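REQUEST ID: PR-0412
SUBMITTED BY: lab tech R.K.
PRIORITY: routine
TASK: structure prediction, single protein chain
INPUT:
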Amino acid sequence: MLTRDYRYPNGRGVYNKARAKINLTLEVGEAREDGFHQVSMIMQSLRLWDDVELFVGRDTVNTFECNIPFLKMDEKNIAYKAILMMQERFSIQQAVHLRLHKKIPIAAGLAGGSADVAAVLRGMNKLFHLSLSTEKLMELGAEIGSDVPFCIMGGTCLATGRGEKVKQLPPLPRTYIVLVKPDFSVSTPWAYKAFDAWEPGRKPDVQRMLAVIESRDISKMQAEMVNMLEPPVIHEHPVIQQLKDRMKEEGADAVSMSGSGPTVYGLFKREEVAREAHRRMRSSFPYRYQVLFTCTENPRYQMRGEWK
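STATUS: complete
OUTPUT:
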């Protein structure tokens, strides 16, 4: 069993939390020459994370340990790609052992992979005393994934460009969240391709959402929560709309699909309502569905104003 163990070989190791995110808004613009789409997204970090540990290994090659058996140390593993990039970019000769304990649902629209990359970059920075700024880490992260810069900054942010331009926003108040991840995945490239073939719908009004965030009134958020990927994804997977409807029935103040899906989330002002919704939805859906309870997370909640 994978555990958080600070007794590292050689006495050199670091631990980081790789925090999940949800999209409060997601506007999709035109496709760019680099193959990405122009986007504008308001994203929020969650108190749900993967455990990421890095330590200087005894072996002469990089090694990998994970609680998910099918995750391998190969070119598809972007957390491992982050290690290789940092070793090459900063001439790091020592081999690194990556210990990853996944708790964020995989391929769920919650940026689990990008969050792991962000944690690896922070960890490599600390482990090898590189003294890189947050801005430099975000720049490096953007080379691997569009959501990585946000995952490095964290909190409540507006991301533009292809997602790599990140601006910190006033933090949401502590808000309770129920997540439901159905027993299927949605490919992000497929979702954007389906969007391109779809008649564009309503766009989110970022300024109005920013005003709601500043008011700290979660009950006003539903009217401004627009994810432009929802219509084509729901057309292919109608159960997502059913989950949204059920979440509202359970008392959520606002509901939406996160990212390219398929995870549906509900925002709750009252913890007891959220916990009851979590209990009832866990008992209602097949065991293959993942139903999680969490809340918002923000660096500003920390004493020093940074992630711990």
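NOTES: The longest strand covers residues 37-56.
REVIEWED BY: pending
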